[in-house]
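Follow-up to my earlier ticket, as requested here are the two runs.
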Amino acid sequence: MSFGDLADGYLADCLEREDVTHVNELAALVRMTAGDFSNLFLEVVGERPSEYLKRGRVERAKYLLATTDLPMNTIAYKCGFGTRRTFFRTFKRVVGITPRSYRLRPRKAKS
C-alpha cells in the first residue's frame, strides 16, 4: 500500500467518523514528526497535508449538500470545520461558490 493510499484511507475514515483530522494525527500514525511528514507528504502526494485535508473536508461537504437537507452548521461540524464562517470561507475559496449556491444549483439528470 502506498503512502498516498494510506493518507486517502485515513482521511476517508476520519470523515466518516466525523473526527476533526489534523496533520499531527497523520504524522503520529506513521511515527514521524509533523515537519518530516509534511515534507514527505508534499513530495509524494504533490500538495501540503493541510490542503489535502481541506480538500477532503470540502468534498465531504459537497456530498452532504447534494444528498441531504442537513443545516449548514451541521454540515460544517460533520466535515471538521471549526465554525460556520470557516466552512463558508473555505468552501467558497475551493469551489468558487457558496455552500448555499452549491446546494441550490440545478442537478444534472442521470442517464
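Run two:
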Amino acid sequence: MTTQVLQFVELSDQDRKAAKTFDKLGKGDQVEVRVRRKSGEDQVIRLPPKAAALLETALGHLLQGERVAVLAENQELSPNDAADILGVSRPLVVHRMDVGDLPFRYVGKHRRTTLKDVLALKSRIDAQQAAMEALAEDAEDLKRYGV
C-alpha cells in the first residue's frame, strides 16, 4: 500500500465562483480565522503574519484554478513524488540517487529523499538547462552571422 505525500487541493468552478476575494494584505493587517464547530461553537484563531501570507498565496493560486500542495522542507518523498516535482521519470530519479546527484536514505527497502534536496536538484537542473539554451543561442548566432 502506497501513501501519497503530494496531496493536491483544487477548487471546483462552483467553489471558485462562490469564493470571495479580498484585497492584498498590508503591513500591520491582522488575519483571524473563524471556525464554526458542528456544536455551533465558534473558535477564532489569530494567524501570525507569515502564516496569513502563506494562506493568501495559496488561496490566490486556488482561485486562479491551480492545484496547490503544501509540504514541509524536510518532508520525505518517494522517488515517484520526486519525479512529479522534477517533471522527470521515476527511473531517472532513481538514477540520480544512484550517481549521488540526489541524497536519499532507505526506509526498509524503500528510498526516501527530502523536499529540500529535490528542490536543490531542480535548481541545478534549471540552471544547467538555461546554460544549454544560452549555448544553443550562441551557436545559432555564430551560424547565422559567422561572428
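The only thing I checked on run two: The longest helix spans residues 115-145. Let me know what else you need.
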